[in-house]
Every structure is written in structure tokens, then in C-alpha cells.
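Entry 14. Ran structure prediction on the chain below.
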Amino acid sequence: MEKLIVSKFGGTSMGDAAAMRRSAEICKKQNSRMVVVSATSGTTNKLIELSKTAEQGDWNGCEKLIYDLRERHFTIGKELEIPEYTRTKIADLLAETETLARGIHLMRECSPRAFDRMQSFGERLSSLLFTEALTQAWPTRTVKNLDVRTVLATDAIYGKATPLTEKTAENAQRLLSNLRTENTCYVTQGFIGMDPQGHTTTLGRGGSDYSASLLGEAVSADVVEIWTDVDGIATTDPRLHKGARAIRDITFTEAAEMAVFGAKILHPTTLTPAMRRDIPVFVGSSFEPEKAGTWIRREVKDAPIFRAVALKKEQALVTLSTPKMLNTHGFLSRVFSVFEHHRVSVDAITTSEISIAMTVDRPMLTHEALFKDLRELGEVTIEEGFSLVSLIGNSMNHKPGLAVKIFGAIEDINVRMICLGASKHNFCVLVQEAQGPEVVSRLHQALIEC
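Output, C-alpha cells:
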């Protein structure tokens, strides 16, 4: 029996007619059964700008953005020579986009629900275009456009909805039970879902990769492919250090750590559904599909102590201090419950007898309600301007002399915080943001290139 492959293509792979045709050829060669697409590159940003411009009351600005969206998608459609019925569907979606913008402009308010719906138009438009590109490239296969909202169920937390995996699996079984055997390839949308009330939701920026993994889990795929603009995963960002090396095989755990701690190639949540089903994930370049790419699996033959170095910028250090922590049980759970309530994640953490220090993404500093609740627990100090540099590897907590090697490479760099021991797969140091790239380069040279 043929493998059931779910393939996902990012915004640059949907960037224009040529990119879509190239991606369509990959689908045909891979014999993909389901294809998940992002919005065309830059479209989501324009839709976000449209929402904000409408909310500010600038209708002239809105008209320009709507014109740009219309021109972009009709130009691609013309180059793809799409049929009239698809052109009509695209026109209807663009008209719906304008109607929603007018409503936001009239009310001078963009609710989270309206904002999610506005952002959904990007993927819905690109999937219509790509359905035609794939139909032309693959005449022996029936190609259907699937509204992912009929399958991917979520809660009603707009902006960063949580998938309802059991309901999603039920929907997939009901609608796609013959996916493995029928002569059909479904083109669908990443990033979006539907709540129990039938409203459109989004999974947060970067959620298209996550969508592919969730759908792969729901249909029991054999492989999930992530096609992007780079050839797989590297030992660090090549833009930070020219000595970066391609990684051909990596474990789920290592790749997940890299994503969480700043590697841009994957969204941090992408691998979780694939891990649950033990579905191998392939990451490759849609621009150079002949290259090897990276396979992510549960186990690999080569598991080095030092696999990669990741950089996460725009970090802030939040320190909560109070004598109440001294010899008190349950205090940490109260702190973490505040972060859970406000749906804010913490990357690195250290504690002492009377204080706890945590790193958060700098944009979270505008979350007034979060810090109001934290201040009820103790004194809160905030320091900005940091980057979190993370060494990713294996069995780090069992390696003698590890600290000597690390700090020997950065002996003249001031390290504000260290995090080791919570995982055998990472060692994190918090440094000044301006020094982050230098720290990455030094650690890569000393520990990976040696």
C-alpha cells in the first residue's frame, strides 16, 4: 500500500505562479495525499495591517491594501490560467475581506474573533490558487480544495487557539476515511481552524506547520513533509555563523528543543502531534527539492553531545522576589498558575530561597494583567535587552567538564543567567542581546566544529 504523505508548503513556496508550479511538481513526485498551504508571502502581514488601518478609521489606507491583495492574487491567477469559476471564488473571498474591513472601520474596533477571520483569508485564497496549479501538474489525480475548518477543531481562544485533537480525529474519520486509497489529493489551509460555535480561529503565527502535523496525526499519515525555502535544519542559523552544517537526521526531542529556543525552521509546537503518532517529519527546500533535507524521527543512529546552537532574541528577565518563598510549599505552583491563566510561556527559569527568575519574550512585557497578578505574589523586577543562547544535544547532564568547555569559549562574556539540568538536551545562557551572535559563533566553533 502506498504511503500516506501530508505535505506542507510555506509562504515563499506559494509566493508566485512559478513557485506554485514548482511546489505542485513536488507534490506529484512525492505522491502527496494532502497538501497544507500557507498564505502567499507577505499576505498575512497585509491582512493584519488592513485590520489595524480599518480600526484606526483610515479607509483610504484600507482601499490601497485591498487593491494590493486583489492585484496580487488575480495576477497569480492569470499566470496560472485559472478557470472562471475559481476566479469567481477568489473574487468572492476578496469581497468578503472588504466587507469585514468595512465593518471594522465602521465600529472602529477589531475584536479578536474578527481579527482571526481577517487573517484566515490569506490561506483560503492561496489554497484556491494552488488547487488549480496542482490540477494542471497532476492530471491523473483528482485534486480537491478542502476547507480545513471542517476538520481542524479548536477551542474559542482567538489568536492562539488550542486544537481539539479528539474532535479533529473524528472529523477526519468522517470526511477523509478513504484518503489512503482514493485517487484524490486534497489541498487545504494551514494556520486556521473552527471553534465549537462555528467561528474561524487561528493557531498563532507560524501555525501552518502545526496544522500539517495535526492533520497528519488525524489521518494517521506515514510521513509529514515541511517544504520551505531552506534545505532542512542546520547546526545554527547560517546567517549568524558561516560554519553552520546541515543536519540530515535528528530526533524529535532535539528538533523540538531547537524550535523552542529560537531555531526559525520549525514552529515550536509543530512536532508534538507527529511525536504522539511517531510520524517521521521531513524538512526540505521547495526551491531545491533534489537536496537531502532533514529527517526528524524518534530515534537516530548518531546522537552527539553537541548537536546545534540556537539563538532566541528579544528576551526579558523577570525576577519575582518575596520572603514568602522561604521554606514554603506550593509557592511555585501559584507563580506558574498565573502564567497558565494568561497563556504566557516561560523559556528558562532559575530559583533561589526567596526569588525566581524567568525569561519571557519581550512583547509579553505589555501584558499588564499578567504583571498585576505577579505583583500580588511579590516584588517584580524586569530587565530587558537579552538573548537566550541554547546548546542543543544529548546527555548533557552526564558530561564531565561541560561547563569548562562552554565558559572557556565565552570567558569574557557576561552571562546573566544559566539554565542546566531540567533537560539533558539543552544548556542555556542569557547574555546581552548585542553579544548573542558572537556567543553563538564561539560556541559553534568550540563545540560543534572541533
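Residues 112-137 form the longest helix (26 residues). Will compare against last week's run tomorrow.
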